[in-house]
Amino acid sequence: MGGCFSDVRGGKQAVGVGLTGTTMSPIPISNATVNDAVDHFFLARGFQQLFTPLELSLSASRLRDRDILSKSDPMVVVYSKKRDGTLEELGRTEVIMNSLDPAWIKKITIAYHFEIVQPLIFHVYDVDTKYYNLPVEMLKLNDAEFLGEGSCVLSEIVTKQGQSLTLDLHNRNGNRGLKNLGKLTVHAEETVASRNVIEVKFRCSRLENKDLFSKSDPFLRISRTVENGGSVPICKTEVVDNNLNPIWRPLCLTMQQFVSKDNPLIIECFDFNSSGNHVLIGNLQKSVADLENLHEQKTGANFILPSSAHHGHGKVLKGQLLVDHFSEKQLYSFIDYVSRGFELNFMVAVDFTASNGHPRDPDSLHYIDPSGRFNAYQQAIMEVGEVIQFYDSDKHFPAWGFGGVTNGVVSHCFNLNGSSGVEVEGVQGIMAAYASALNHVGLAGPTLFGPVINNAAEIAGQSLSCNSRKYFVLLIITDGVLTDLQETKDALVRASDLPLSILIVGVGGADFKQMEILDADNGCRLESSTGRVATRDIVQFVPMREVLAGGQSCVVQAVLEELPGQFLTYMRSRDIKPSACSQHDIAQGSQYTQPVVTTQMIGHTPRITMSKLDTRMMNCSTN
C-alpha cells in the first residue's frame, strides 16, 4: 500500500546483516530462532525430541497489485497449524517496497520433526508504508491488505528435489474464487551448527551515476548460490544517499548465510528508487575467501554490467568494490557462557501497592485462598520462578517488596523477608516470604519502579570492578499501574550500560500499555529526560494472563524469549568471551565468595553450579 508520498526510510535499512558496534547486537536474535536457553531448559528435564533445525527462504511472483500509484509492499507471515485448527505464528519476513516479484532476505527458522505432520500456512500481505519503519513484529495485520494464502506440509518441502516447493496463492481458507493471486516459492535448508562469522566492511569507488539530477543512492545485495542453480538473497546493506563512492557500515555474516569460504556469492550494487524499480549499477561474483584476498592485497574488484551484446560476458565497469575490513570471529552462544563459569544472579521485587486490593478481599490479587489455590502473584512466582531458578547459580534470590508500609512508613524497596535478610532460598523461599509479608506489610503506593531498579543497577555496577563474569536479572511482578514512568525510563537508560536485564511480569487484568512502552519492542530505544538514549534494550514484559493458557512450554518461551539476546548483546559489545576463569579474574573477584564450579547431571545435560554473590551489597533501604 505505497504511494507517491510514502515514507521510504524503512526501505533503505539493512536486512540480514548483524551490524556491529557498542550500541547494537552483533547478531540479532530472531523470535523465530531456536532459543538455546529454552532448548537447554527442556533437555535438562529429559525432554529429548529428535528434530532438524531448518531455515525457510521465501520468494514470490506475480502478486496482486493492490496499490493505485505504486506496487504492493509485500510481507509474508508464516504459521504452523495445530491439531485443533488454530494457527501459531512462526515468524515474519521483512517488507519489500513496491514489488510484485519479491525475494525476501529474512529467514524463518523451524524445527523439522520427521515423525510429525507439520502443516504450514503462508499469508502474504501488502503493508502500508506509513507503518514501514515499525519492526514487522509490531505490525497489526488488520491494517494490512491480504494478498493471498498458500499451504503445505513441511515434509513436502524437505522431500522435494532441491528442497524447493512452489505454491499457488489463493483466498483464505482454501477459497479459490479469485484466480492469479500469484505464486510463493519456499526453499528449505538445514541450519549450520557453526560459531564462525565474518565481519566485513565494504566500500565502492567510481560507481556509474544512474540519476539525472543527483547522484545514485547505492546499496549492496548479497546472494548465495544453491544446488538447483538459483540463488538465495542473504543480506542487503543500508542505502547511502547521493554518493558514487559509498562506505557502508560493517556487517557480520554467519556461516549459515555463506556456508563455506569457497562458496560463490553474488554481490549486486543497485541505485535505490522509491518506486521499487532499483537500477542495477553492476554485479560480481566472489567467495568469502576472495573477499579476504581483496582486503589483504588492498585491491578492488570491478563490477560487471550484464549485457546480451557482449554474449553473456557483460561490460567491465570502472566502478570497483573494495573491502576496508575483514576479520573472522567466533560467535558464542548463551549456553557457552553459562556453562563456562558466567553467573546469572536473579533478584525479585513484588508489588505491594493498594491497587492490588486488600489481601483479605477475595477479589484482591494478593488474596491467599484457604483452599490452597494460588492467587495471581503466587502463580507468577511459581511459574516464572521455576524457569528462572534453573539458570540461577545457587538459587538464592535477593527478594524485595515495593509500595508497602513497613515500620509505619511507605517503602519503595524493602526486604521481602523482613529482618531475616535480603535473600531467600529458591522459589519456595519467595513464596514463604511473600505470604509472611502480607501479614505485616500494609498496601500503599504510589507504584514506583525507580528505587528497585536503581538498587539492582547499583549491585550490577559494583560487580563490574570486581568480576566481569556476572550478569544480573531483576524480576518485577506487578499489577501494571505505574506512577513514575519517566523516572523509570531514566533509571533504565542509566542501567542499559550495565550487565543487567529486567523482566517485568504483569498480573491481573490491568492496562499494561506502560509496560509495553518500557519493553521498547517497537524498535525505539528508551530516552531519558535529559535526552540520552538507552545503549540497548534491557526490558522484557510478560503478561501472565496471556502465557499461562499455553502451559509450561509457553511460559518458558515467554520468559526466556529476550534474555539470551540481551545477555549476548552485552557480552559481545564488550568483546567478553566465555574463556575459562583466569587467575586475574579470581584475584579481581577476591572480595566475593570464590566461584566454585561443579557439575550435576539433570536429565542428560550437565548442570553448572556456582557460588553466590556476596549479599552484603544487596541490602535495600527501608524507606
Description:
By secondary structure, the protein is of the alpha+beta class. It is about 20% helix and about 30% strand. The protein has 14 helices and 28 strands. The strands form 7 sheets. Strands 17, 18, 21, 22, 24, 25 and 26 form a 7-stranded mixed β-sheet that branches. A 4-stranded antiparallel β-sheet has the order 4-1-8-7. A 4-stranded antiparallel β-sheet has the order 3-2-5-6. Strand 10 and strand 11 (about 230-235) form a beta hairpin.
Mean pLDDT: 81
Q: What fraction of the residues are assigned to beta strands by DSSP?
A: 25-35%
Separation, N- and C-terminal Cα atoms: 55 Å
**Total of DSSP H or I helical runs spanning 4+ residues:** 14
Radius of gyration, CA atoms, in whole angstroms: 27 Å
Q: Which class do the helix and strand fractions yield?
A: alpha+beta
Specify the overall morphology: globular
> Could you describe the largest sheet, including whether it forms a barrel?
7 strands, mixed
Percent helix, as a range, is 10-25%
Number of separate strands: 28
Q: List low-pLDDT spans.
A: 2-7, 19-33, 581-623
How are the SSEs placed, and which strands pair?
Layout: H1 36-43, E1 52-61, E2 74-81, E3 87-92, E4 108-112, E5 119-126, E6 145-153, H2 154-159, E7 164-168, E8 183-190, E9 196-205, E10 218-225, E11 231-236, E12 251-254, H3 255-258, E13 265-271, E14 279-286, H4 288-297, E15 301-305, E16 315-330, H5 334-338, E17 343-351, H6 376-391, E18 396-402, E19 404-406, E20 409-411, E21 414-415, E22 423-425, H7 426-440, E23 442-443, H8 450-464, E24 470-478, H9 485-495, E25 500-506, H10 513-519, E26 539-543, H11 544-547, H12 551-559, H13 563-573, H14 583-588, E27 598-602, E28 605-609
